[in-house]
Design goal:
With 467 residues, the protein is mainly β. It is built from 2 helices and 20 strands. It has an 18-stranded antiparallel barrel. It is globular and about 65 Å long. The protein starts with a strand and ends with a strand.
């Protein structure tokens, strides 16, 4: 099992939330995630380029969408809300403006359900998948699975401050009688609260129960057996706008439990922060530091240890067509056991989102990570390149492409491998209440570790009902 250090910071766990649909114009339309077509699971990253820690001050850092699963959108802490009591006439005008905004909705945009001072956006997705390698292993067993996912997004309509709540629950069933578990569950939630014009607080949490991939190099080299893994995550992030200085403090706790193999159970504690300086309204230099500690429940363990990551970078924000960031720094892994070797690497990472016009959205990224490992290697360094694109073919038709290529190097040993995946997806809105989704994925691993290579192809079809 690995402790994953990546080159960009992580705020707890930010998992994909199906938010009741989105306009099909300039925004990326992400198809629901297929549980059988992701890359080989490893311990969740301490720092991940796909979920950049955002300083939500007067200059929002807008992270790119690096996969089909989009990150939650954050509000600016400097939204100009009225600071005087609302008079009855002003309230009536506000209601008229709200009504006018509702009438401006596109033909395929969800209306939401008003409940007092809140607006709810519920959705229900029903998905079916066919794959030629249900467990992503060298045997390539055919499989069929179905997924049911429900989600809700809640937004406040207050005169001052704001609140946003996102949550989802997913259930995946497999038609393989001998497979354990026969079904998998997922749940996540996020609460974003604007305490003042200068301060935002976000709370995140998630739970996953799934089966490890038998082709995992960690399992193969250690002689272990694939187990049912339950992962719990919780995190908090505070962003404060102090004028030209943007501040962020974040922390998270992760707990992983393996059924029938409790010796592998562990917890990870993480604390980090970021300071940014608004050089201009579009350029923000920043410094970022994060520390973490991994502790096994039944220690001592060779993977008990501390990690440290530091970076300097520049973020480009508030541009109409282009946003992203570039950072350089170092990360290290320091095991507790004296017989294990420390390891340190340097990195230079980048992420970019470019929308040349209202129809196209292009994303790209370079990410470096350092992980602890249960193998004979000192650590594992991973270098990943990702590319994505979304195109609004029509007002109600969006097509997209996502891909990544990763090189894993087991430092201190001769083990190496490549991991890759590519997904084509499409979304067709029949009305503002119903849309069809489809995707096709190819993925695999190729390396010099026996029995770890695999390739898999899958097709997913589904329907989403939203309000």
């Amino acid at each position: 099992m690995r402790l994953l250090l990546t080159s960009t910071m992580m705020v707890g766990i930010a998992l994909p939330v199906l938010s009741g649909g989105s306009p099909v114009h300039a925004q990326s339309a992400a198809a629901p995630v297929d549980d059988t077509t992701g890359t080989a699971p490893v311990d969740p990253s301490l720092f991940s380029a796909s979920i950049l820690p955002v300083l939500r001050g007067s200059s929002d850092i807008v992270p790119p969408v690096a996969s089909a699963s989009a990150n939650p959108r954050y509000r600016s802490a400097t939204t100009d809300y009225p600071v005087v009591p609302t008079l009855p006439a002003e309230r009536a005008m506000a209601e008229q403006q709200t009504s006018g905004q509702t009438s401006d909705l596109g033909d395929y945009d969800p209306e939401g359900i008003r409940a007092g001072s809140f607006v709810l956006y519920p959705s229900l997705s029903i998905l079916g998948t066919v794959t030629d390698n249900v467990d992503n292993d060298s045997r390539s067993d055919m499989g069929h699975l179905g997924k049911l996912e429900t989600s809700v997004k809640v937004e406040s309509d207050w005169d001052r401050h704001s609140l946003e709540l996102n949550g989802s629950l997913g259930f995946t069933g497999y038609q393989q009688p001998d497979r354990k578990p026969e079904n998998e569950q997922h749940g996540d939630g996020e609460l974003i609260l604007e305490l003042s014009d200068e301060t935002d607080v976000s709370l995140t949490g998630s739970v996953d129960r799934t089966m490890e991939e038998p082709s995992s190099i960690e399992l193969i080299t250690s002689g272990g057996q694939a187990a049912i893994e339950t992962t719990l995550n919780g995190g908090v992030q505070i962003d404060h706008d102090a004028g030209l200085i943007q501040l962020q403090l974040r922390g998270s706790v992760e707990s992983a439990n393996y059924e029938e193999d409790p010796a592998r159970d562990y917890k990870t504690y993480t604390l980090g922060g970021r300071v940014g300086f608004e050089a201009t309204d579009q350029v923000m230099p920043f410094a970022d530091v994060e520390v973490s500690r991994k502790i096994f429940d039944k220690g001592p363990n060779s993977e008990d240890g501390d990690s440290l990551r530091g970076a300097f970078g520049i973020a480009i924000t508030e541009r109409e067509k282009l946003s992203g960031e570039f950072s350089v720094g170092a990360m290290s892994w320091q095991p507790k056991q004296k017989s294990s070797k420390e390891d340190t690497i340097l990195f230079a990472d980048a992420s970019l989102t470019w929308s040349p016009n209202s129809l196209w959205s292009l994303t790209g990224g370079i990410e470096t990570s350092l992980t602890s490992t249960a193998t004979s290697a000192n650590s594992v360094s991973t270098h990943t390149v990702s590319l994505g694109a979304d195109y609004a073919l029509r007002r109600n038709v969006t097509i997209g492409f996502d891909s990544s290529l990763a090189r894993n190097i087991y430092r201190g040993s001769s083990m190496k491998d490549w991991e890759y995946d590519a997904t084509l997806r499409a979304e067709y809105s029949l009305s503002r209440y119903t849309k069809l989704v489809a995707s096709a994925t190819h993925e695999g691993r190729s390396g010099n570790v026996p029995d770890s290579d695999y390739h898999a192809n899958s097709v997913q079809l589904g329907v989403t009902f939203q309000r």
